[in-house]
Amino acid sequence: MVAEVTARPRGAIGVVRAYSDLMTDASAAVSARVRAVAESATLAIDAKAKALKTAGEDVIGFGAGEPDFATPTHIVEAAQAACADPAAHHYSPAGGQPALRSAIAGKTRRDSGLDVEPLEVLVTNGGKHALFNVFLALLDAGDDVLLPAPYWVSYPEQIRFAGGRPIELSTGVETSFRVSVEQLEQARTPRTKAMVFVSPSNPTGSVYPPEEIEVIGRWAAHHGIWVITDEIYEHLVYGDARHVSMPVVVPEVRERCVVVNGVAKTYAMTGWRVGWSIAPVPLTAAMARLQSHATSNVSNVAQAAALAAVSGPMDVVDVMRSTYDRRRKVAYERLNAIPGVSCALPQGAFYVFPSVAGVFGRSVGDRIVTTAHELCEALLDTVQVALVPGEGFGAPDGVRLSYALSDDDLVKGLDRIADALS
Ligand SMILES: Cc1ncc(COP(=O)(O)O)c(C=O)c1O
């Protein structure tokens, strides 16, 4: 069978058929559990944009959820030193190096004021992996998880994969994309095990004020609902917005709370793959057990880099934040100037999430677009601009643009969108 696969490039028709049969067999063999997982809408559009770019097209990518900065030098140097240190060449504790777990506890006290023990910290391959562990460790078949929409694309897939049921609660621009406690209460049933809370939000850039966080936290604690609070954009807030951690505002939520965080967005380290969860010790121990069979330790070199990041200076982050702040205003103003497009001024993260329902029915290039997905395809094909359609975020009237790209590309890309839609 393997010989047939390797024989394919020789081009014999019979062998090619056998190869495609093999592929069909392999597709049929994929488990129902994994067949049910949708491709990440954000990674898919980013991959298409990158492929076009590699092919020489002048593509402007608003799709990727990652900083356009390089990782700060002191972090890179710490990783270089780790590469040369034989101690980093071997397995280390699956739950994370003790020095990094302590540093994350210290950084959390410093940044959000949450008092954390190193044993509550689990170091993971990015925040995404932390969330995956959490849902697998918390959910049983039939458990419901309240999920405000628009949501980050991976939450519903991960919840379903773990056997849970995501219960979407829709929010719109009129409520600044923030869910209310009344909505949560209306959706609550005896099956409600947990809720996902994200502030600042991907994809909307909305940030909850402390008083709303308090009301939601008290409601969750009162009903014994677990809160998974994703704080990965904690340092990227603008204007008067402040990041506030729910278990700090509502200490009684703490016993059923998981904080998820990571170095990716704050320190321009998306490719290094280091995140973490902070959870009560028995849950952390359970997730560490799971992780010990799945991935073992996160790369020691990446952990050394993360240690330098979380215990290092924050002025590098200030520079990145003020750059995003400038760009978000440009994106907000230019998008709102396009007829049929309207958006709220984002207060955090590096995304803007305009409604594009007003352009449905209009022609873009040679086709009429009637959905966000069609609009994004048309914009990529006709003016080489990559945006992410809202369908994957549970918000089919919107599109997501990341403004973590150069000022020149930002303006050029927004001009192209305006031209295509005018
Ligand atoms: C809200 C949110 N949480 C978690 C993550 C995961 O980040 P990473 O796995 O790169 O640490 C992302 C990445 O886009 C995100 O937007």
Describe this structure in words.
The chain has 422 residues and is α/β, with parallel strands linked by helices. It has 16 helices and 14 strands. The protein has helices spanning 2-7, 13-29, 32-35, 41-54, 73-83, 98-111, 126-138, 154-161, 181-187, 210-223, 246-249, 281-294, 300-311, 315-336, 372-383, 407-421; strands at 60-61, 121-124, 144-149, 165-170, 192-198, 226-230, 257-262, 275-278, 351-352, 363-364, 367-368, 385-386, 388-389, 399-402. The strands form four sheets. The chain has a seven-stranded mixed β-sheet with strand order 2-8-7-6-5-3-4, with helices on both faces. The protein has a three-stranded antiparallel β-sheet with strand order 9-14-13. Strand 6, helix 11 and strand 7 form a beta-alpha-beta unit. Helix 6 runs parallel beside helix 13 (300-311) and helix 7 (126-138) crosses helix 12. The termini are far apart. Mean pLDDT is 93; it is low at 1-12. The structure holds pyridoxal-5'-phosphate. Pyridoxal-5'-phosphate is lined by residues 65, 126-128, 152, 198, 202, 230, 232, 262, 264, 270, 275.
